[in-house]
Amino acid sequence: MDSMPRRRFVMGLGLAGGAVATAGPLRGATAAPATTIPAACAPLTGLSFTAPEQQQMLGAVDEIVDRARALAQMRFDNDLPPAELFDPRLAGWQREKGIALAAPALPLPNLPTGADDIAFSPAWQLAGWIQSGKLKARALTDIYLDRIARNADRLNCITTLMADAARREAEACDHDLARGHLRGPLHGLPYGLKDLIDTAGVETAWGAEPYRGRVPASDATIVTRMRDAGAIPLAKTSLGAIAYGDIWYGGRTRNPWNTAEGSSGSSAGSAAAVAGGLCAFAIGTETMGSIIAPAARCGAVGLRPTFGRVPRTGAMALCWSLDKIGVLARDPLDTALALKVMNGPDGQDASAIPEPLGRVPQITPANIRVGYRPEWFKAGTAADWAALAAARKAGFTLHEIEMPEVDLEKLGGLVVLEAAAAFQELTASGRDDLLTWQDDIAWPNSWRAAQFETAVNYIQAQRLRRRLMLEFAKTMASVDVILHPNNAGGLLAIGNHCGYPALCLPVAMLKQPTRQGFTDYVAPADVPAGAAMHRVPFNVSITGRLFEEARLVAVGQALARTIGLEPLRPLP
């Protein structure tokens, strides 16, 4: 293989070391003779075979090549999952009973007089003002539409604005309430919806050029549930093309605190819209950081729920064993309000798990064990130090934890492999060339390379994932939550691979130069001479136990109250 030109090798092979098809034959390349395949592909397996063993393989290799080519020619709808289903619950897992009494309702403050003050208020307060008759849904919708008109272009965070439909729905909500009919806890709240979640009759293009003009015939399950609960879909929000990054067919989504930098991804538009005061809350999705990352960049509160908590019917599938639908908001309580509406199986998503979601409990911090590692915070930012200090001040019981010893790099291919399967049609047809982002780390290149991963490697990585789940379960058994810098200890990857929930919330404001790409923090020593500095928010994360989002939100709320961060308002 070393002596063979790389392009000829990649395009000419009909097989890559296992039952995985290359796109080559489908894109006009000439396949190499089957007799060359065992020798050429052996390096991809990490194994070596003798010449007689390679000769003996040829019959089986022919069959594998034929099967690989046949599978690569097939077309599957994006919503068809594989037969193997992921479940974050290990054998013997039981839901904890009787965590605590439900927390008393917080007092509702007076309705602000200024429209922008109303726009930046938490969703739970907006809901209270509407239900008490102090605020009309139509008035709130108009406030957000005005802010969208002023700010959406500079943020580049909206793909489709549903202004007329939102106004009609708001007026219907006001009419219903006047007759004494409360639709649900989200009555009259305009929200943003990540543009990979289907809306009947409204374009849902997944942020990607090949899917522009895609108009679904029906709503996703969560859209129906939101409407039944009184929420008003205001806008489809931008996402990095096919749920990666913040670059979509309309350009790059911007951070409201510094529009020279992107808002991270892939729930880029949902985070920017919430942080910029363009909607009451927004829906995002996460496979490997797509709620946490933009929430941290924009200073929003992001809740990634337990895998299986929310049915994904009608949402674009990227990675069936990791995709989750969650919430971007301005207050931890807002996330619980929306999650309660979305929770529960719908009879269509085979991975949805029937676990109840209780009310946010009243907690005594001294009874809550908060796990952490001192070195995470020693090496962290001033925001991380502030979060740890606040946890101590609030009275939480801090507990130093042991983390799993698993090489997470060996799991890195799982997302790419599932995504490559979900979108093999793009690779096979060459339509992946239509995507704007074509860097080495972008989807097109990753998916092409994924064709050369072996099926055995994929299964071994899944076995390693199971080992990680077993070891991390031991870690979580010793604590109620883990407090950590967003990416510390591999917890972003661990939490997603194991299916655990996490809450990301702003804790401090720091000065930073314009950050490039996915860079989170630029240390003072690395700031270029003369660089303009911007005051931007920094977040911290809390990882919770499986299906214990209510307690997770209670801990986040207590931490936020202790920190007492000023109201975050980046835009006029």
UniProtKB/TrEMBL annotation:
Pfam families per UniProt: Amidase (PF01425)
Which positions fall inside the Amidase domain?
140-552
Do you know which PANTHER family this protein is assigned to? AMIDASE FAMILY PROTEIN, TRANSAMIDASE
The entry's protein name is Amidase
